[in-house]
Every structure is written in structure tokens, then in C-alpha cells.
């Protein structure tokens, strides 16, 4: 699409000199697209173009954009009480939300305590602090490290970075500035479960918790693992006094085909983090849930046993009201049935890509579709550009092109997305083949 610079609004050209955009090399990326508004599953640009969204705005807009019920809930709460501090005060939106979250999460009531924070990264930080202090309060101060998986991602703050594969992951630049934890491989193939179990046993005296993204490693590369393997890890943690921390920030709220990914493995984590889809993508809110047993370790007469954490915007009333409205939608409308349809459609549409040169794998699970490409030939910036040209909003990274559409996406809109993926990847594969034949001529 030709860029008509005349058409760019002033706020954009001026602000572009002042904004520090997230991730990636902005001198290589296509320039950020000026967005005028959103609607349903579409992002509408200032120049009138409509992009079908295949990312749900970083996996959060489960019910699509501007859902009237969510907007209504936010407006109503803004009139009554937009926000009030949460220390020494309580309010209905947060208390109701805590009650509901503990009822719908794995174990249906077993994760009875909810700590609200303002972003996913903070929720994982809080989970780590809880795990460390749980053992401290039980007089086990040597349990001061975590186990996590290669290819994991738990956020961008320091604690979160320390368990996000700091040697190989996106935060490599900080690998010497984070506390070193135990980073292990998911037991598959040659690395057997019993070896894995031996490793965990050996490090258990030093381990407070095992941090894992259930079923899908998201931002670390969109890799799937089986519910059975997840259940095994959970069992091994339980047998070795390691708290099992499920980071469901990406997977929670139906994304993988069940309300929470842990359900598929039939497990109840000791600690669980939710975020992203919690408010259906319109307000920033996250939560760390724990069992009553863990909460008990923080109670008693000694103030030093308490958790020293309390974000300024903790349990923001407007965000909690929206989250309650989002849970209403999950109850009233059958998102799981929609996810099953999305899964089938993506499966059909993307499978054929497997045959193409340079395509390493095609994975579909719930409302997640992944096409993994040969990284050495992948130019993410060029691919992102190609998708914009096709009027779809997709953001390939590393070696993957992925779809995480809003769960309410129509068959037609999803077809627009999958067609774009098929066309762009096919074109890419052709160019890779051309490069290779040139090399081997
Ligand atoms: C996005 C994400 C986070 C971080 O959440 P933010 O709200 O971006 O801080 C943590 N863990 C997982 C699994 C995520 O996908």
C-alpha cells in the first residue's frame, strides 16, 4: 500500500519523535500504523483502511473490540468510583471478582485467595515473592531459587525476566543482571521424564517454585506441550516440595480450548497468574491466585510474615468492573464452542502449508494457530509488512507466524486471516526456494 504522507495526522508525525515503541528495531520495522478506532475484530486506521485483527491485541481482546457490555460496565463504574486505593479499603467490583475467579479457576474454589495487580509481569513477580516467602515463613530459607523451562516467557520485569530463559530468550542483554535460576528442558524425546525427575529432585532443596506456562509457551516461541507432560511436572513438584506456579496469562479464558489450560491436565496449581484476557482486553488488570494453605503461611501475629506488595492501582475498580462484565460474557455466550470452531477452521486452512519448503511445523490448538518457519530465512519485518499490505493485523516474531484471533471472530473474517497467512507464507517459501537453488546452482 502506498503511504500517502500527506494524510498522516499531526499528532502522529509530531509524536513519532517522542514515542519509544515496544520491542524490536523501529528503524527496520514498518512505522507504527496510526489507528483511528476499533470495532468488532477490526482495527480501523486513520486513512480508512480496515485491518482484520489476528492477534487480539496481544491476546487480550477475547470478545473483540468495543464490546458494548464491557464499555457499559466501564462507563457505569466511572460514574460511581473510578478508583480508590486498596489498602485498608475494599469495594464491590474487586471483592466480587475475587470470589468469582476463585470459583471458576482450576479446583473450583481451591485457589481461594486473589492478589490483584496491574499487569501480567507484576502478577508473576508477585507469584515469585509469594513462593519465596512461603518457604521463608516455613523456616526453609534455602528454597530461594526457581525452576523454569527453556523457551518460557513470564514478562519483562526483572523477576519475570529471570525465569524467561535469560540465556537464550529475548532478554539476553540482561542475563548478567538477573538472579540465575534453574532453566530446564521440557522432557520430550531423548531427554526422558526420569532424567528430568532426577534433576528436579537434586535441585529441590533450593527450589521455591516451578514457573510454567501451561500447554503453550507463548512469547518464547509458540510451542505446545501435552497435558500429560504438564501433569507429570505437577506431580514431580508436589512430591518434591516445589510450588507449582501456572502462568495462565496467555492461556487463560478459553484460548487453548478449555477455560484454563491446567484443566486439560486435570491439575490444580499452587499459584496461578492471570492477566491479558481478564478484562477482555480493555483495561490493564492481572491477578495472582493461591491456595488457602499458602495464604495461611502469611498470617499470624508477626507483621514480618506478611507480603510486602501493593501496587498503587491495585484492584482498580473500573478494571475489576470490566473483568466482571467479561466473566458475565464467558458465562452467557459459549466461547468454548467458538474456540472449537476456530480450531477446526484453522486446522483445515493451515495444514497444507506443512508441505512447503522452509515451513518447519504447523500447530493448531484451540484459538491458536502457528506456522513455524526456518528462522535463518525469516525476515520478520518484511513479513509484518506483507500482512499489512493484505489488510490483516498479524505480528510474526522470531521463527513464527501465528494467529490468536478474538474468540468471537466470524468464519469470514477468520478466512481473511488464514488466506493471508497461506498467501504470504507461500510467497515466502517460493523466495526461500529461489535463494536456495541459487546457492546450489
Ligand atoms: C504477556 C505475558 C506476560 C506479561 O504480561 P504483561 O501484562 O505484558 O506484563 C506474562 N506471562 C505470559 C505467559 C504472557 O503471555
Give a concise summary.
This protein is α/β, with parallel strands linked by helices.
Top keywords for this entry?
Aspartate Aminotransferase, domain 1; single chain; binds pyridoxal-5'-phosphate; 441 residues; globular; Aspartate Aminotransferase, domain 2
Strand content: 15-25%
Instruction: Specify the overall morphology.
Output: globular
Mean pLDDT: 95
CATH superfamily of the largest domain: Type I PLP-dependent aspartate aminotransferase-like (Major domain)
Based on CA atoms alone, the radius of gyration comes out at: 22 Å
Structural write-up:
The chain has 441 residues and is α/β, with parallel strands linked by helices. The protein has 2 domains: 137 residues, Aspartate Aminotransferase, domain 1; 265 residues, Type I PLP-dependent aspartate aminotransferase-like (Major domain) (Aspartate Aminotransferase, domain 2, 3-Layer(aba) Sandwich), CATH 3.40.640. The chain contains 14 helices and 16 strands. Strands 4-12-11-10-7-5-6 form a 7-stranded mixed beta sheet, with helices on both faces. The chain has a 4-stranded mixed beta sheet with strand order 1-2-3-15. A hairpin with a 2-residue loop joins strand 1 and strand 2. Helix 12 runs parallel beside helix 14. The radius of gyration is 22 Å and the shape is globular. The two termini are 35 Å apart. The model has no long low-confidence stretch (mean pLDDT 95). The structure holds pyridoxal-5'-phosphate. The site of pyridoxal-5'-phosphate has 15 residues, from helix 5.
